[in-house]
Amino acid sequence: MxxxxxxxxAPPGTSRNWGYALRRVVCPGSFDPVTNGHLDIIxxxxxxxxxxxxxxxxxxxxxxxxxxxxxxxxxxxxxxEYGNVRVEKFYGxxxxxxxxxxxxxxxxGLRAVSDFxxxxxxxxLNYRMSGVETLxxxxxxxxxxxxxxxxxxxxxxxxxxxxxVPDLVHRMLVERLRG
Amino acid sequence: MxxxxxxxxAPPGTSRNWGYALRRVVCPGSFDPVTNGHLDIIxxxxxxxxxxxxxxxxxxxxxxxxxxxxxxxxxxxxxxEYGNVRVEKFYGxxxxxxxxxxxxxxxxGLRAVSDFxxxxxxxxLNYRMSGVETLxxxxxxxxxxxxxxxxxxxxxxxxxxxxxVPDLVHRMLVERLRG
Amino acid sequence: MxxxxxxxxAPPGTSRNWGYALRRVVCPGSFDPVTNGHLDIIxxxxxxxxxxxxxxxxxxxxxxxxxxxxxxxxxxxxxxEYGNVRVEKFYGxxxxxxxxxxxxxxxxGLRAVSDFxxxxxxxxLNYRMSGVETLxxxxxxxxxxxxxxxxxxxxxxxxxxxxxVPDLVHRMLVERLRG
Amino acid sequence: MxxxxxxxxAPPGTSRNWGYALRRVVCPGSFDPVTNGHLDIIxxxxxxxxxxxxxxxxxxxxxxxxxxxxxxxxxxxxxxEYGNVRVEKFYGxxxxxxxxxxxxxxxxGLRAVSDFxxxxxxxxLNYRMSGVETLxxxxxxxxxxxxxxxxxxxxxxxxxxxxxVPDLVHRMLVERLRG
Amino acid sequence: MxxxxxxxxAPPGTSRNWGYALRRVVCPGSFDPVTNGHLDIIxxxxxxxxxxxxxxxxxxxxxxxxxxxxxxxxxxxxxxEYGNVRVEKFYGxxxxxxxxxxxxxxxxGLRAVSDFxxxxxxxxLNYRMSGVETLxxxxxxxxxxxxxxxxxxxxxxxxxxxxxVPDLVHRMLVERLRG
Amino acid sequence: MxxxxxxxxAPPGTSRNWGYALRRVVCPGSFDPVTNGHLDIIxxxxxxxxxxxxxxxxxxxxxxxxxxxxxxxxxxxxxxEYGNVRVEKFYGxxxxxxxxxxxxxxxxGLRAVSDFxxxxxxxxLNYRMSGVETLxxxxxxxxxxxxxxxxxxxxxxxxxxxxxVPDLVHRMLVERLRG
Lengths: 179, 179, 179, 179, 179, 179
Description:
The structure is a homohexamer. Chain A has 6 helices and 5 strands; from the N terminus they run βαβαβαβαβαα. Chain A has helices spanning 36-46, 68-79, 94-101, 113-130, 148-156, 167-178, and strands at 24-29, 51-57, 85-90, 105-110, 133-138. In chain A, β1 (24-29), α1 (36-46) and β2 (51-57) form a beta-alpha-beta unit. The first copy, chain A, starts with 23 loop residues before the first strand and ends with a helix. Chain A has a 3-stranded parallel β-sheet. Chain A has a two-stranded parallel ribbon with strand order 4-5. Chain A has a domain at 24-145: HUPs (Rossmann fold). Chains in contact: A-B, A-C, A-D, A-F, B-D, B-E, B-F, C-D, C-E, C-F, D-E, E-F. At the A-B interface, β4, α4 and β5 of A face α1, β4, α4 and β5 of B.
């Protein structure tokens, strides 16, 4: 078994003697819209890796509030300060996207035990299909009750979601849902 | 907030322009003894990081089957082939060990939902106390039923544990428990 | 922070010296139809509070078997004997209804661990948005397997649901589903 | 209370003195399509009982990939080697099917804790309605991440599902989804 | 792979043509003391199998309230009416006991999700070590909160446990704990 | 069935016509020592009830860091500002204490799913034994990873627990563990 995973790209000009490699990961999701919970995971991940690729799923079967392009623009705006985050879209299987990008690792947040079974099963299936690993990070407890769908439901009925999303997203939500 | 975590050490001779850093993690445990489940996590982790430090907890209050030194020797023997695994012992808080080593990340295996709550709470507490992150990796389903304590119980009553531990550990268990 | 929650209404004629207050709670749900499990929670709650307001959610997006008015009438009939239960309908966010009613507390039944994560997350979100608290009561184990949707599915195929719903609801179900 | 359940049929020609009875069970599901996880449960069950009746649910409200007849044919083909498996279809309540067949026991696989609550509640409800018992068998950990719906999603996007389904099903999936 | 498990014993005088076999299972536990929850599982199991062997674990390391012989006598007394229950003691690994008895199946009750992980892991480990299968049965919801240790704690402080244990056990508890 | 629970005491001088009653609850625990998580539950409960009785369990079998009297003094000091909290100790069964106090309701915090099963089972058992109800309140997510035992372990090794306990407790911990 090779010691280096398929997605580890040796940085140009770095002697292989050192063995240091560009460590990149994928943070996938729908991000419709991005919440402070997502941002917490992306930000903490960006401090542990050389590059974080945020992968926005194109799901034509599911009705979304924001278009894929709107979501990408928003993600780019709110992650700019991290300095090593790139936003991409993908269609189909996440592991195919990872392979195309040459990235061996997915990082996901776990909020609660109800996420756990599904996520572990997906991780095991993805590993079996492709060798891509999934690493889980505990969500900041302050956002453990937060999801994009719950957020939209609350905003739709006029509930106050400031503090749960970036300011930019707050303005977009108010405009889209009540405009 | 700094973009680089405290434990990221720039490799000597590497231009900071590239920004590539030595990525190291800690895999903690008691390893009394190391099982194939542990080895699966350590081996998969070793392919995702530049260096894996296996940290053996010294717990004077808990009776162990093997001494800390025996466990370290065994771990060194069975992880040698990975090429980038170092085995250390620690006493006290795991996050203090991580800080001393300058390592910002812990990697742990999750077997089942019963691990989940405890591990997530420890991860949140460790992050709050020290900023050290914990990443969870799904255990290989083939070893999801495996723990060191269950293993010792079975071996003690003469049950067959070959295939659940490395051969070296199998021989040590047979010798220690029935010798 | 005030010692009295916003929804605590001092009963007219009661000296504030005593500090005793009318303690009211909301028991929310769809109640399509009300089951013996719901009734167990409402009845036990009615013995712990001065008034219980049963709040029937108007959900125009979800197809229901009984109209909101039918559900209210049924609930009124089967809770009459408790003496301190009032039935209302609401639209939108439950916490907005609670505020309009001046009631600081929601009481909900928990049947099983699968309810737990969702309900705890909703409770935390509701508290954060509005300060309204949610208290959970363990469902009577005898009805822990019971839900309105499962009940309707069984009744639809001619299964026997007597003993799982009040007699009035049993008659309504038979009439509606097989009439 | 009678010592023998309603579904225990004394085999013709067997003296009642021995009290041995034909032990039959039902393994229910949608099997759209049958996976190696299903087959693992059916095969292990067939070794514990005299006859296993695989019951394919006819669900007109849910869109399926394969017709009920295709699913029955496939199941018959892949379970033929067990020698004591019969495949039937049913409509309505599973417990009514069990009663019609004179079979007192359902056997189901449990993959993960997320299955647990739903399945236990259904088991308790079925027992209360009809006296039919449900016995749960732990899924082979190797297939614990597997479900028909996840499988179809992967196959739809060209993911490799060989090794997760019988060869016959693999060919059918490839033909149906990409043909 | 053989179609018949190792523990299936053909009853004497029964033609193999019929293929009917004596179906036996093991219900294991400490039974210190037996509760109505245990009895519910044993009684329901006795109606699904030709013979139920209740296996009392001899655990010299754990302090018990009743001796193994007292527990066996009590179990024999309260299960006598089922007509097909035999009580045995065992030491060491449960699967070794099953093999000695030639019984291929263990039946256990599942009360709640907290039992689930441990029990599923033990079931998978036992199957891997020996081929012995474990089937789980949902505990009667009325006894889902009941365990021997909780019962003893309550009885010790004078709490009323009648209705939670057989009358015989109730008398024994009162005598032992307050005598 | 009486409409008023046994523990509802009509306040002197209040006309029964109003039916308003003194609503009291018990918040039980070991509180060795009290954490900010406990205090969050007690404080929020004090706003929903007329009086909160904090009940400190005397457990002679478990080694504690602080004496029962120290714990009571500390609790009294840190809950004084709520104005309606009384601290008592109890020995034996919690429901017996509730009955002696004439209080029909226990309020407990739920942190995570691992608490859930045990707590629900205790609640059902307590209700069955005595009619005393248990209401659960979601722990503040900020303290969801916190327990007294974990806290003591961290403090023992010199970890920083400020912000997790009241200042008074912080000083006591430092003095006791390192003094």
